[in-house]
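Weekly modeling sync, notes
Attendees: S.R. (lead), two postdocs, one rotation student

Agenda item 3: backlog of single-chain predictions. S.R. asked that every request posted to the team notebook include the full sequence so nobody has to chase files. The rotation student volunteered to paste the first one in as an example of the format we agreed on. Action items at the bottom.

Example entry:
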Amino acid sequence: MKSIRASRRGAVALSLSALLTSVAADPTVLPAPGQPTKTGTPGTFEIVGDSGVSAQQLFLGNDNRVYIVDKTENNPPKVGSPAHPAWATEYDVETNKFRAMDVVTNSFCAGGAVLGNGTWLNVGGNQAITWGGLTASSQSGNTAPYYNGDGGKAIRLLDPCQDKKCNWVETTMSTRRWYPTLETLEDGSMIIIGGNQWGGFVNSAGQNNPTYEFFPSKGDPIGLNILTKTLPANLFPLTWLLPSGNLFIQTNWGTEVFDYKTNTEYELDDIPHAVRTYPASGASIMLPLTPANNWTATLLFCGGSDLQPDQWVENWAISAYPADATCVKMTPDVEAKWSDDDSLPEGRSMGNMIALPDGKIFMVNGANQGVAGYGNVSWAIGQSYADTPVYKPIIYDPNAPAGSRWSRAGLSDSTVARMYHSSATILPDGSVFVTGSNPNADYNVGNNIKYPTEYRVERFYPSYYSQRRPQPNGLLSELGYGGNYFNVTLSKDDLFGNVSMIATAKVVLIRPGFSTHAM
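Predicted structure, as returned to the notebook:
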């Protein structure tokens, strides 16, 4: 096992210097995409497969592969030598089969995002563990039954593939990060923000890591004041790169615009009504940038919990506390003020918002009571700190009049409780991939487990799914910033027999991103 790990880390060391300077081959012209090969009933969920490991984290790596990362636990698939449970898989969305992948350190609550060259990062985690999530006697990765190393300083890299030969490789950073946030910057590099050192329900001053750093490294971590002022519910801070080039950061009740180039923090008003970061875990998203809004970024936040800083303790029944239903938004590059939006029909913690190609937002997963997290306390539901799953999805239309932006028209319920550690992403055919849920310290299944470790994969089919798709010719295999123009042609059939409809044709680009913990 030790030799396998050494070789993987060596491969990373050899590639770092060229990570962002590699030149991709000239893009090729793609054939027309064709119609979806899969059929699905619009407005419904379908259980299509088994994820192999529970999907605490996931991302769409290429046209037909979703990569799933779990925490170290006793998942059924085995991998490596000596053999041990896998906590990562590559899932083929065409065959609904998975390939187990070996991750050598504990990726529990790691952060993730994609570099400008297409390499995915998975950063941080927690100590090596043994049965039941207990800390292992050795942190070196050579101890049964899980053979996992300490993941607190880990940086894991993956170049997605089609040939089933790609694997995670690892390097390290200088500081421990559990629940960090990663944001891709305009030059294709990565900023890594926050986290804490050793775990726990919420953050604390004694183990806080109120800093940021870059990958590839630009030097030692740098202090970030908002992470000092917003304890304790400030893990997985919510961030977006704005068109201005600054970062928007929202964590606990605090909000700011951050100029990372000059290390300047511009404090804004606290977010109203509720905490949206973990473990309140409200849903959040950047609404579509369109010609109509002049490519202006508006951030929408819904749900979470209105708990105050002194209420994030485990001596009372948090699992019975109602989740928040409010929605608020801000357009920070225009007017850095919060405004109320239409509320959800019920409170929801741990919901996921997914951008759809029709410009609407799909919301799925989560619970009506409690917050994210698990533990062995008397009021937990099994081990879950939340209860009352929200099986009903809902769709938000940013262009609808106020008071009518949320709708469930034509939507069926899921049959799977998606609680803590569930995730979702849009797929290239326009369906939504939904999986995960595991509010347990380790693999935990059985008829008497209300919220078990969940492996079932669902696909949700939006209202447009069965409609004829246009067949554009001239699309390129890769798109970058700037460069030469290229022509895309549509047929008369693509325009439903009316060539004049070309005047209203739209091109929609969606970056699915990294899904974990309602992000």
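Discussion: group reviewed the output briefly. The first strand starts at residue 44 and ends at 50.
Action items: rotation student to repeat for the remaining queue; S.R. to check formatting next week.
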